[in-house]
Amino acid sequence: MTEPVLEILNLRKNFGALKATDDVSLTLMPGEIHALIGPNGAGKSTLIQQISGALTPTSGTIRFLGRDMAGMDMAARARAGLGRTFQISSIAPEFSALRNVILAVQARQGSSFRFFRPVARDRSLIEPAMVMLERVGLAARSRIPAGELSHGERRLLEIAIALSLEPKAFLFDEPMAGLGADGSKSLTALLSELRHVAPILLVEHDMDAVFALADRISVLVYGRIIATGTVEEIRSHPEVRRAYLGEGA
Ligand SMILES: Nc1ncnc2c1ncn2[C@@H]1O[C@H](COP(=O)(O)OP(=O)(O)OP(=O)(O)O)[C@@H](O)[C@H]1O
User: Fold this and answer.
1) Which atom of ligand 1 lies closest to the CA of 47?
2) Would the CB of 38 count as within 6 Å of ligand 1?
3) Each residue of 167-184: pLDDT tens digit?
């Protein structure tokens, strides 16, 4: 049987009396996009933050590639292959798009032997960095300072940086936020391909994107998962329609 890449078991996070995560169990399987949807305040960010290591669960287990992540901080989880973007921006605005990706490639390769070498002329860093920029469609913008890129382009640059770290799973927290229709469309196409690089746990309010992308959807309401299923199962689920999508959905 195929093992999940990420497995969450009976996770709970209390903020005082508030059960922000209330006995959540879910899996992320190889090759899939698993979308997590729910109304504002349902606990989506709280859940993602526990997976990334920004918040410590009250109880429960998070396993990544079979390993219990309890006690691992955010950096250790990132090194283990948990790729996360959109909440902590890792972009240096004064550096070119290329240089931003080079720094990530260098971090991945380990920089100790390169310390005194001029990074900008090191082909073993430039070539893989350009491959990442090409993959996200930013190759033609490689020389532009990151601070001058559009909002949508910075999203793509964040993905190129995340890709350089060779993730084994992606956590994407509202990647479509603030993008126009064109930006959402191209990011949707990119995420659809990225699932083959590493599976994606996707928190997203843009339901068009969710319905276009998700292999499975879990619906979170008041910290609890009320349903997990395919797009069709979730669209026709009576409790989901009542609690979240509305009867017109
Ligand atoms: N640090 C905190 N201390 C106390 N309560 C918190 C804290 N962080 C979140 N909460 C509460 O936990 C609940 C879940 O919040 P969370 O931000 O995870 O929801 P969300 O589903 O991500 O919402 P949104 O869609 O608006 O981003 C909310 O009631 C929120 O007010």
Assistant:
1) 18
2) yes
3) 999 999 898 988 888 888
